[in-house]
Amino acid sequence: MQSLIEEQILKYLGGGSSNVEAEVSLEALDDAAVIHNIVLKSDSHTVKPLFFPGGDIGRLSIAGTVNDIANVGGEPIALASGFVIEEGFEMYKFETILKSMQEACKEAGVSVITGDTKVVETGALDEFIINTSGIGKRGDALDRNIAEVKKYREFKSNWLVDSNIKEGDKIILSGTIGDHGTAILSSRRGYDFSVKSDVAPLNKLHHKLLEVGGIVKIKDPTRGGLSNVLYEWSKKSKVGIVVKQEKIPIHANVVEACEILGINPLHTGNEGKLVIAVIPQKAEEVLTALRETKEGKDAEIIGEAAKIFGNHVLLDKGGVEGRVVLQAPSTDPVTRVC
Amino acid sequence: MQSLIEEQILKYLGGGSSNVEAEVSLEALDDAAVIHNIVLKSDSHTVKPLFFPGGDIGRLSIAGTVNDIANVGGEPIALASGFVIEEGFEMYKFETILKSMQEACKEAGVSVITGDTKVVETGALDEFIINTSGIGKRGDALDRNIAEVKKYREFKSNWLVDSNIKEGDKIILSGTIGDHGTAILSSRRGYDFSVKSDVAPLNKLHHKLLEVGGIVKIKDPTRGGLSNVLYEWSKKSKVGIVVKQEKIPIHANVVEACEILGINPLHTGNEGKLVIAVIPQKAEEVLTALRETKEGKDAEIIGEAAKIFGNHVLLDKGGVEGRVVLQAPSTDPVTRVC
Fold first, then answer.
1. Closest CA to A40 of A76, A4, A11, A87
2. How large is the angle between the packed helices A57-71 and A203-212, nearest 10 degrees?
3. A190 — contact with chain B (CB < 8 Å)?
4. CA gap A325, A87 in Å, rounded
5. Closest residue by Cα to residue A83 from B270, B13, B34
6. Is B31-325 a CATH 3.90.650.10 domain?
7. How much is the pLDDT for B237?
8. Which of A96, A254, A267, B265 is the least crowded, having the fewest Cβ atoms under 10 Å away?
9. What's the burial of A233, exposed, middle or buried (CB within 10 Å: 0-12/13-18/19+)?
10. Coil, strand or helix at B19
11. 3-state DSSP: chain A helix, strand, coil percent, rounded to 5?
């Protein structure tokens, strides 16, 4: 369904005049677009429930857009919020959401500078939707990072895009996976596994990583989870990827919750983690920098891009199981995860 | 309701760090925001029905954002589209909407360069929502226009904002009013008044007007109609405004339809018209330029900003009725008009 929609969108909206000028265009299907050195991103949020352990739709709407702008190497400047509200939606809920947005904006160091609100009749919408768009600029840290990469290997892009990865690049995961998706689904089903969403704006972490240097791409494993990130990279960079299962950080109660809920933690969304592709010469340095931060204290080098027939993504399960092809994500096992 | 929401949004999201840097900030509640010379706009579209005489939600979503960027003096560069789709929505409808977007983009000379799609379960949404965000740049035509204004009077803003209007400025309307709102409501009720929506991207018209010069503000009378534009200007510019009823262009069948539908054409949305505030010295020249265009052939100078006690907006009905205070819009009489 999702891919059918994307095909249709590209068929009609791809290749337009601005797309040709864009440095990162619609066709790239990357985290954000870039034109005239301005990073542009738009994201609609339909998460259900609106309030979940560890966050709410307000925090999510800021974090999601800020992170996507930073994923391509941009420094978020400002945001625009579009609210669609069902008539009868309680004002205290709206205020709680706005407060969360305000806090997340402070953490990220950005502001909402414009917006739009539409109220629709009761029944026309399940409560509340936020679209957050945003713009980012090119910062010096990105230029220094790219210069560092170029000391060691060829690097053609001016931005951090999915097609930048080459054989030998290390794959780092900034922390535990599955927390957000598990929190959403368990909250919806009324279970309490003591799992909290990791939703957070991470642009300051991105900045710190760029200052270390050697980064070729950063991506947050949201819809479709870690598996989706690895498949996107493998497809667009035309490389194989191998990750070691034992290196992937995950909380014990997330493992347990996923078993009970019947979902795969490698396939479900996170909102406060980064997957980082880095040249091997800088991998340990990036790992050390990550572990110094609150958000990155559990970081691990989980694998690398490698020469694999058919450019598959392999999961090394260790022991007698060995390497298996990681299941490709069709969609996130948790609906309305973000 | 709408104003309560805006107050809450300003309370929590106003005054953030980027808002302070913004040249046109959230607090301005203008057509779009401006930061670092980049114009930013976001607009969610919930129009019902999705397809109506003269257009559809796709065309509307492009025109709305392009026009708002141009209203503050920006030249639209690129757009981002966020779709939220109810599961089961027919693919041929989606394709028709995408085709309309493509056409409107061509007319405007912009492209969608990034996007996002969320599918929600049946019943969680009345079919389909589009959010369109966009960015614009500062063009030379705006600088030349402002230089022209400054030949005749003081002008403090760098952009075309609602607070720019001064006593004596002429108010021009580019064409007939009430077409869009009447088309939407009659279509929803199953009447046929042969009224078509005027929905169109007008940024090329904005550009032409700036090339004539002397423009202090342009605004499209969307939600809340012409009345809303005049009230916004009066409030933010702290001036009175007088418009002559007999000068306001309106189609005879719109007058008739509005009577039957029980709505006021001065209060309902248009999507292809401009209200232009211009210094008196350039008003006739701007009018002539407008009338040379297809979109502006019915243009009229409908009134002017004037010294009026309490800065009221007056409607001059002519004859024995004389000048009356124009009713302030609370909300658009047509729900889900855009």
1. A76
2. 20
3. no
4. 48
5. B13
6. yes
7. 98
8. A96
9. buried
10. helix
11. 40, 25, 35
Which residues face B169 on adjacent strands?
none
Chain B touched by A131 (CB under 8 Å) = yes
Helix (H) or strand (E) holding A302: strand A300-306
In angstroms, the CA A240 to CA A306 distance is: 5
Which of B 132-171 lie inside 8 A of A, CB atoms? 133, 135, 137
Tell me the C-alpha distance between A197 and A220, whole Å. Answer: 14
According to DSSP, residue B328 is labeled P
**Distance between CA atoms of B113 and B285, rounded to whole angstroms?**
37
Of the residues B17, B111, B184, the best mutation for testing chain A's interface (the one with the most A CB atoms within 10 Å of its CB) is B111
Using DSSP's 3-state secondary structure scheme, residue B84 falls into: strand
Give the pLDDT confidence of B168-197 residue by residue, as tens digits. 999 999 999 999 999 999 999 999 999 999
Q: Is B166 exposed, middle or buried (0-12, 13-18, 19+ CB in 10 A)?
A: middle
Domain residue extents for chain A: 31-325
How many DSSP H helices and E strands does chain A contain? 10, 14
pLDDT digits (tens, 9 = 90+) for B60-111: 999 999 999 999 999 999 999 999 999 999 999 999 999 999 999 999 999 9
Q: Do A33 and B80 touch (CB under 8 A)?
A: yes
Q: How far apart are CA A35 and CA A18, in angstroms?
A: 8
pLDDT at residue B6 in the model: 85
Could you report the predicted ipTM of this complex, rounded to two decimals? Answer: 0.95
∠ Cα B246 B327 B272 (to 5°): 60
Residues 6+ apart with CB under 8 A from A90: none
d(CA A336, CA A83): 17
Report the relative pairing of strands B275-278 and B323-325 from DSSP bridges. unpaired
User: Residue B161: pLDDT above 80?
Assistant: yes
Residue by residue, DSSP assigns B225-279 as HHHHHHHHHHHHHT-EEEEEGGGS---HHHHHHHHHHT--TTTS--SS--EEEE-
Shortest CA gap B235–chain A (Å):
19
Distances (CA, A) of B41 to A42, A82, B168, B331: 11, 10, 30, 21
Helices marked H in A15-72 — which ranges? 17-21, 57-71
